[in-house]
């Protein structure tokens, strides 16, 4: 039987970064997602379960997480770990369209505001037991802000949660990369998953093995618990592919977007929630996303 095809529609105009001249506090972010068939007071969430060779699409309508009153929502099923995966806040290089990869770029002021807003949101999630982060500054600083809001937890650094190493492309503005480093750019665009990028860059296969193994280790350690992981756009898209190998691309992974995965024993990953940036919509803090799609870095 064919699977119902119900997908998030994304406004293409909303995928561009803000104008640097616009003051952060006066931006009104565009409506990011339109959920097919969703009511105005509910969020439709798509859940993908990967188990053995089957991928199932389950559609459910769930009330917004901030209005849920069911006391059982604080409990995590003992058969899986609930991992709240967050992309780091904005950096100046995100704003400029400059490729970061493993280069250690700090958050800008907008990114710190984004981190504070998502931290406030996650502080309302019950029973968060641990916070993990990539060891790169933009992720680690975001994670520290979140951990402070969630009861002063300590952030555990996980180097395997780093962004993809993009070799000779790192430090280049994306729109200029094809001219400045042609071979690296061609490798970056290659559909061969074993294609490494000149200058020490990783292949997609190497990224996949590194970051999915890291999340699975965290999942095994925290079964029956709810934890936060702060990482990067390319890594989060790899997680999506692991959970939904035969599904359409998940779209842009925006700065401080919330993506919730359930990891069970064996080969089972489930997406509970994807691309949630409602915390940014409510406050008017910038939504940006450079590096959160095919241009990850």
Order of helices and strands: EEEEEHHEHEHHHEHEEH
Count of DSSP H/I helices: 8
Please report the total strand number as a whole number: 10
Strand order of the largest sheet: 4-3-10-9-5-8-6-7
Strand content: 15-25%
Structural class, from secondary structure content?
alpha/beta
Oligomer: single chain
User: Main sheet, how many strands, which sense, barrel?
Assistant: 8 strands, mixed
Which of globular, elongated, flat, extended, rod-shaped describes the shape?
A: globular
The helix fraction, in percent, is: 25-40%
What is the averaged pLDDT score? Answer: 80
Low-confidence stretches: 1-71
End-to-end separation in angstroms reads: 38 Å
What Rg is obtained from the alpha carbons, in whole angstroms?
A: 18 Å
Structure summary:
The protein contains 8 helices and 10 strands. The chain has 297 residues and is an alpha/beta fold. The strands form 2 sheets. It has an 8-stranded mixed beta sheet. A two-stranded antiparallel ribbon has the order 1-2.
């Amino acid at each position: 039987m064919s699977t119902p095809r119900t997908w998030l529609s994304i406004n293409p105009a909303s995928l561009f970064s803000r104008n640097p001249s616009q003051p952060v506090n006066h931006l009104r972010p565009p409506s990011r997602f339109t959920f097919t068939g969703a009511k105005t007071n509910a969020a439709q969430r798509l859940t993908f379960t990967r188990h053995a060779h089957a991928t199932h699409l389950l559609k459910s309508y769930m009330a917004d997480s901030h209005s849920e009153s069911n006391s059982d929502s604080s409990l995590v099923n003992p058969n899986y770990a609930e991992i709240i995966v967050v992309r780091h806040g904005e950096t100046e290089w995100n704003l400029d369209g400059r490729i970061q990869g493993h280069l250690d770029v700090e958050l800008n002021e907008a990114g710190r505001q984004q981190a504070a807003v998502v931290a406030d949101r996650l502080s309302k999630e019950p029973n968060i037991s641990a916070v993990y982060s990539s060891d790169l500054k933009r992720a680690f600083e975001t994670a520290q802000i979140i951990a402070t809001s969630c009861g002063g937890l300590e952030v555990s650094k996980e180097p395997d949660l780093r962004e993809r190493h993009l070799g000779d492309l790192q430090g280049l503005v994306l729109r200029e990369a094809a001219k400045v480093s042609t071979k690296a750019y061609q490798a970056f665009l290659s559909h061969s998953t074993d294609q490494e990028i000149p200058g020490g860059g990783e292949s997609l296969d190497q990224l996949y093995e590194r970051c999915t193994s890291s999340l699975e280790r965290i999942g095994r350690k925290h079964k029956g618990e709810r934890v936060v992981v702060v990482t990067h756009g390319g890594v989060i898209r790899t997680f999506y592919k692991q959970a939904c190998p035969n599904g359409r691309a998940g779209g842009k992974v925006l700065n401080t977007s919330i993506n919730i995965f359930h990891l069970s024993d064996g080969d089972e990953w489930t997406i509970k929630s994807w691309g949630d940036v409602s915390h940014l919509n409510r406050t008017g803090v910038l939504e940006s996303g450079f590096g959160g799609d095919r241009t990850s870095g």
